[in-house]
Amino acid sequence: MPTLGSLSLALLLQAPGGSAVTVEPSSANLIASLVSRSTLPAKVVIVILAVFSVVSWGVILYKIWLFQRSARQSNQFLDVFRRSNKFSEVQTVCRSLGESPLVGLFQSGYAELTAQLRQTAPVDVGNGPNPKPGAPRPMLKSLNAVDRALLRASVVEVGKLEHWIPFLATTASVTPFIGLFGTVWGILIAFEQIGVTGSTSIAAVGPGISEALVTTALGLFAAIPAVIFYNHLTNRVKQFASEMDDFSMEFLNISERNFT
User: Fold this and answer.
1) ∠ CA 79-143-87 to the nearest 5 degrees?
2) Which site in 93, 94, 137, 207 is 20 to 30 Å from 105, CA atoms measured?
3) Of 123, 133, 120, 140, which is closest to residue 88 (Cα–Cα)?
4) C-alpha angle 175-177-179 in degrees, rounded to nearest 5
């Protein structure tokens, strides 16, 4: 038989139209409440996961902005490089397009090329030799040395592009296990409450289980974007590396055609 208290509660939860009124806390308030009621080890886990998530998102946004800027400047640099008749003309625009990895390659190859040609004849190094009348034609001593200079510069530029990207891989691989630690700890708390109270009711095990689920969710929240953008950014680095290989071949072809 229903009691007076249960009938009163039922009447209070009824809307004027006869439908039941449900009160649902917001997601933010629910998460804040769960975090505030968590034990100290769980809070430490949550803080660690939050740091990983914030830093990884910072890396993601910065790298996306940087790669877009690098791609735009690379296109501008290639346009200048292919329209110029002298390498010295290209050198003058390198400072304003410093985010392009192709600039580093060009400057390294240009420095090696100039160093070799100065040993044969003073020339204005360009896409074609321009010696004075009667002067000896400038000749490269070693095209392989130019190739090695470009290869070293390519390794340096790829290293710059990959900077901080391994952190995303670390985040993707580590944070699920950190969240799993919080999950195990929450389950231990739940079992401890069962042992203390001798009850398996929701009131006894609920706090520990909710604590476990929060850390699991935060671990996945940090790991999933990290692995997605790690793959995306790694593919972008591969595209830049391919462009650098093509530019190196073009630079070597010009050098071989004009100075050997």
Assistant:
1) 30
2) 137
3) 123
4) 70
Q: Which of 222, 213, 217, 238 is nearest to 158 (CA)?
A: 238
- Write out the two tokens for 45: 């886990």
172: Cβ contacts below 8 Å, ≥ 6 apart: 223, 224, 226, 227, 230
Tell me the one-letter amino acid at 202.
I
Q: Which amino acid is at 55?
A: V
Going by C-beta distance under 8 Å and a sequence separation of 6 or more, which residues neighbour residue 88?
A: 124, 125, 126
The reply to whether 10 falls in a domain is no
pLDDT tens, position by position, 58-78:
999 999 999 999 999 999 999
Domain annotation covers residue 6: no
For residue 217, the enclosing domain spans 28-259
* Tokens describing residue 82: 């292919």
Give the mean model confidence (pLDDT) for residues 26-37.
Answer: 63
In a domain, 2, yes or no: no
pTM for the model stands at 0.78
In a domain, 14, yes or no: no
Q: What distance in Å separates the CA atoms of residue 193 and residue 38, rounded to the nearest whole number? A: 14
What is the number of domains present in the chain? 1
Q: Give, as one character, the DSSP assignment of residue 109.
A: H
